[in-house]
Amino acid sequence: MTTTVTAHVVGRADEVPVGEGRAFTAGDTSVAVFRLRDGSLRAVAAVCPHAGGPIADGQSDARVVVCPLHLNAWRWDGTPTTGAGPLPVYAVREADGHLVVEV
Amino acid sequence: MTAILGGSTREFAVLQAADSRAQIVVVGNGMAGARFVEEVLERDGGEHFRITVFGDEPHGNYNRIMLSPVLAGEADEADIVLNSHDWYAERDVELRAGVRVERIDTAAKVVHAADGTATAYDHLVLATGSHSFIPPMTGVRTADGALLDGVVGFRTIDETRQMLAASRTHRKAVVMGGGLLGLEAARALQAQGMEVELVHAMGWLMNAQLDVEAGGVVRRSVEELGIAVHTDAMATEVLGTDRVTGVVLKDGRTLDCDLLVVAAGVRPHTDVAVRSGVEVERAILVDDRLATDVPDVYAIGECAQHRGTVYGLVAPAWEHATVLADLLTGADPEAAYTGSRTATKLKVAGVDVAVMGVSTPERDSDEFLVISEPKRGVYLSVVVRDDQLIGATLVGDTRKVAFLTQAFDRRTPLPAERIKLLVDLSDGDAEVGVAELPGDSQVCNCNGVTKDRICGAVADGCTSLPKVMDATRAGKGCGSCKGLVQRIVEWAADGALTEEESASWYVPGVPMPKPELIAAIKRHDLRSVSAVFATLARGGEEDAKSKMGLASLLKMIWGSDYVTEPDATFVNDRVHANIQRDGTFSVVPQMKGGVTTPDQLRKIADVAEKYDVPMVKITGGQRIDLLGIRKEDLPKVWADLDMPSGYAYGKSMRTVKTCVGSDFCRFGLDDSTQLGIDLETRFQGVESPAKIKMAVVGCPRNCAEAYVKDVGVVATGKGRWEVYVGGAAGASVRKGDLLATVSTTAEVLELTGRFLQLYRENGNWLERTYDFVPRFGLDRLKAVLLEDSEGLCAALDEGIQRSVDAYTDPWARDRAEPASPGQFRTSLPLTVLPQVPVR
């Protein structure tokens, strides 16, 4: 099966402060983009697979992101550490001051 | 995407070609197969054998017994991994996970797998286990032979995940099978919020292990959980075309469901053996050396039939693994397996159950002793033949299990007064005396660990429960003996026990108990959470789940000199509101002492209308809650309210409830309202290990519930006030302890401040005062706070004053200028808006 991946410019790079997450829309998909403390970016689904919590409001570190509602956590490859379902992950990069997410 | 349990973080090792070692191939990577590999390696088998393991599932090896706790949400998937892919790689064991073996060419000694590979063996171990038995029912399978969507067995982690996923999106489950597995599935799904009905084909629950009366006791306990039980109920048809919608019973009744769990027993996986010409009856036939009728082919675990018995428990499977490892490695060439006397101890639907041997007398001369207390949920019985224990059933009270297991296993002499088998006549409440337990009595049935071995591990320097468990494997099967293991470890260590280090840490990410952490933070002058991680965490690594506790601690230590970092703060503290299940927020303005004015009410009403607030609610803390506010509206709402934050979202001092006191009440003895306002003014927003609720009442009638608050103040007349601490009326209900009776409101304020600061400096993260006060000890608390026995009072007064001085209203602060870009930007899915019920 072939899956088509499209790159979307979702916003400006400076919209995501260090250590925090913000929600964006890439095509029809809501994504939460995080900037880790080392400056790198991560993009995951904006909606928690457990109970629909807003992932962009969650806390994170170099290894995991934590949903604010019930503190479920996922590694940045989307695998859960707390028994919730997997969290979709997306490629994200910075280009000319823009945030580009591939979904 | 599906997560691989115990997945690998490295590339596969390249196999060396020239290897003179003999090849062992293990078919099956479950409880038996993986344990066999461990046992071979423990006997230095790695020097003489190359080992290849085929596993049907893509995962590493995990503890199947613990799937029920995972389903119930009591254990993490990660906790049940026994051996990860890395574990195999590090030990040079080739794991072919996700590769099914098709057949064995026993003449050429080659294993043919589904991926087309052929692997030669010198010794072959079949450990293929069992599969769920799906009884024949109309409609249970689709045209292509697969199970209908929504129908699932309960045997693997993937099936467990399927059920967990279904529990989130679906409402009603039917569990078929009233045995152990079915009961566990039913309880777990119910704990996940599903409505559960249990269908059992036989006359009573757990009929394989229990007699009708004991089954009845279990049934009542299950029904008390809210699970409907149908016995003598055979399902004949499964309804639904795309997904299951119900089951039809033999008597014509239909039960609606959108999840059907089939736990109606297991059958040994014997197809590979059959296809390969190995002799199979109910399972693969093995002798006392676990050898099949084909040379160099062995079978262990649930797929093996030994002396007519097929075992469905983990303990015999692990005994098989041990005996076969002894034989193949030559560690004990005389090793033989002669059968297991199975004793099971488990918790089913919240009830402790232990069974061994027969459940009812079989001969006229058998003695049968029963204690049945259905009301209390207790049923105990023993069967004695020729002065030996041949069976015991314990439901709801398993205190005698260690003694009975001993008598059953070792055929030790029984007390002449048989009643002593079931109850301690001296003291009915006594736990099994750990000291009296014979040294060779088996404590962990899954792993066959005796009391002597546990004591030996302690003597060898294992000084904590986890270390003893790692060294002996005791408690690492079903876990039901953990309590007994702990008591033995405590007894053997005789006070020299260390707790597992991390248990004393304030947060998991920084390896220090709270007092040490506070000292280190002050010594290194660490004023931000990132600085704490960089300086004090192992490897300087940050930890998301530790951030909130550290932020609170730093604010307590540094007051206004704390360096805020948005990423260190939980969303509630970042936006100064409480996040709700739909991602909106609740806004609770400060209303000191629960006293409001027409002007405030007017403003609140205007805001509620202007922002279409879906619900306006009076809180339990005498305030008004505006629920369902969008994050992006928060600053505007605060500006329009022009009231300070009520801190209803924080791990901080929240509210002081009051009664109307002497101003209006006929019975009021003193001005509780004013004292409540003064307390709230002084301690507003003070952060603490967990939330703090206070109340002041004007007489002991306690209308504002001061006896059950973290700090409660009660007027007793003539200007005197009683100060209670450590009360609670939430998930725990506890009347506060009387700390002191004082004569002025100034003393109330001073004492409250001291208590708060002591709690802030010594309470663990999220430890409420109702746990802190008993832990610290009321007598010591009184001595420290009232007599200054440890010389702390001046520092406590100073500490709380620093936090009082650092108070600023966060709503006023952040409504003009966001603390970070996009602070109030919505994080909700931008395409689908949540549905908030509007009343």
Automatic annotation (TrEMBL), chain A:
Pfam families to which the protein is assigned, alphabetical: Rieske
Q: Which UniProt keywords apply?
A: 2Fe-2S, Iron, Iron-sulfur, Metal-binding
Domain Rieske positions = 7-101
Name a GO molecular-function annotation.
Answer: metal ion binding
* InterPro entries, sorted: Rieske_2Fe-2S (IPR017941), Rieske_2Fe-2S_sf (IPR036922)
- Superkingdom is Bacteria
What's this protein's name? Nitrite reductase (NADH) small subunit
Source organism (scientific name): Klenkia soli
From TrEMBL, chain B:
Which InterPro entries does the UniProt entry name for this protein? BFD-like_2Fe2S-bd_dom (IPR007419), BFD-like_2Fe2S-bd_dom_sf (IPR041854), FAD/NAD-bd_sf (IPR036188), FAD/NAD-binding_dom (IPR023753), FAD/NAD-linked_Rdtase_dimer_sf (IPR016156), NasD-like (IPR052034), NiRdtase/SiRdtase_haem-b_fer (IPR005117), Nit/Sulf_reduc_fer-like_dom_sf (IPR036136)
Pfam families assigned: Fer2_BFD, NIR_SIR, NIR_SIR_ferr, Pyr_redox_2, Rubredoxin_C
Annotated GO molecular function terms are:
2 iron, 2 sulfur cluster binding; 4 iron, 4 sulfur cluster binding; flavin adenine dinucleotide binding; heme binding; metal ion binding; NADP binding; nitrite reductase activity; sulfite reductase (ferredoxin) activity
Q: Which cofactor does it need?
A: siroheme; FAD; [2Fe-2S] cluster; [4Fe-4S] cluster
Which residues belong to any copy of the NADH-rubredoxin oxidoreductase C-terminal domain?
Answer: 343-410
Ranges for domain Nitrite/sulphite reductase 4Fe-4S = 650-788
Annotated siroheme binding sites: 703
The kind of enzyme this is, by top-level EC class, is oxidoreductase
EC numbers: 1.8.7.1
How is this protein named in the record? Answer: assimilatory sulfite reductase (ferredoxin)
